Amino acid sequence: MKTVLTSYLDLSTLSDKEIREKNIVVAFGDGHYIYKFPDILTYSREYFKEKSEMPLEIILGFIAQQPSNSNFPIRKYLKNIEEFIERNKETRQAINLKKKLDKEKEFNYLATKESLRVSQTHLESFHSCQTVKDVMAMTTIPKQQRITYIASHLDKFDTEEIKKLYSRNT
Length: 170
Prior knowledge:
With 170 residues, the protein is mainly alpha-helical. It has helices spanning 16-21, 40-47, 56-65, 78-87, 92-106, 109-115, 120-127, 132-136, 143-152, 159-169.
């Protein structure tokens, strides 16, 4: 199975064709929600989708559970995080989300960009690249160096192309 069941779905709402063609796992229980927190790759794929299929409760729970030094995108959910914190002030999850929110508000792309190091050996090769596809096509250069170059030159590339790359490679 390529994805994780993260919320309740009433099987009676699916057509016979959908039931036959989809990979479906059926679980019985006395609770409404049956879910598993995603891993960072699943979260990242969902983050870059136009409309996430993952319930907001799972997303916020995942964000709250991550170590404070972890780096992954949350900007899309800032308003939801602020609302959750306001409603649930003293809970552990709200406290953890507040830390993430504060860290996100302090984030400085220019400072982070300066800390990204692309090997001088590869830097000249990258300068001729006009697209993300050009950078990723340079398979003689280690993948981490290619991704670091893209991350340190985000303003040079098309945002949609970066999202597509991220969705494919996570």
